[in-house]
């Protein structure tokens, strides 16, 4: 569960990226975050995975008070949150298997379990047969599937996806969405920032619209609502 109460985020240069956001996202929800460029969507997500800390307000993720988190608790909170980016962010010199396994190595999982679980998630995203390939040998859609495998390998309760289909063609985007829906169906909460109006309007879910650092709309089974 994610709960924001009057969250402000002001960057060091004085930019108010969020100006009093209050929102509650329950376990197992699937939420689209929409809004114009610069509205504060990425900031909203960075606060959830604690890449940034709120300037003011209360933020709790899975029962942890993110603003007041002790440094030694940060890895524990992060391992319960999977992050997916528009540009995949795979390590270019590591194979598909190694990219995914790496996320388990950092939490010091036993080798045998790493091998089993990594192959299991590669199977889930349909890329078991490409485990020995390098990212550059894969298509964009395949690279995004590897990044999804990496995000889910530690079984996080929350998945944060920042424009996961931004670099993909419509057909590949739909395949990625099917995968995210499957992951949601298996029990993870998903928060996805997107500019993709076709996806939002066809796969209806809760829509939270942010403009100028404020939530301006929050609808169950909402629409994209912007022209571009
Ligand atoms: N590290 C930073 N330092 C200063 N200002 C920042 C920083 N990161 C973001 N901003 C500013 O905060 C505001 C919100 O940015 P954010 O990236 O959250 O928007 P966004 O809705 O994700 O935009 P986009 O759709 O273009 O990705 C913008 O004005 C942006 O320029």
Automatic annotation (TrEMBL):
InterPro entries: AAA+_ATPase, ABC_transporter-like_ATP-bd, ABC_transporter-like_CS, ABC_transpr_LolD-like, Cell_div_FtsE, P-loop_NTPase. GO terms for biological process: cell division. Keywords: ATP-binding, Cell cycle, Cell division, Cell membrane, Membrane, Nucleotide-binding, Transport. GO terms for cellular component: plasma membrane. It is a peripheral membrane protein. It comes from the Bacteria. PROSITE patterns: ABC_TRANSPORTER_1, ABC_TRANSPORTER_2. GO terms for molecular function: ATP binding; ATP hydrolysis activity; transmembrane transporter activity. It holds the Pfam family ABC_tran. Homodimer. Forms a membrane-associated complex with FtsX. Part of the ABC transporter FtsEX involved in cellular division. Belongs to the ABC transporter superfamily. This is Cell division ATP-binding protein FtsE. The gene is ftsE.
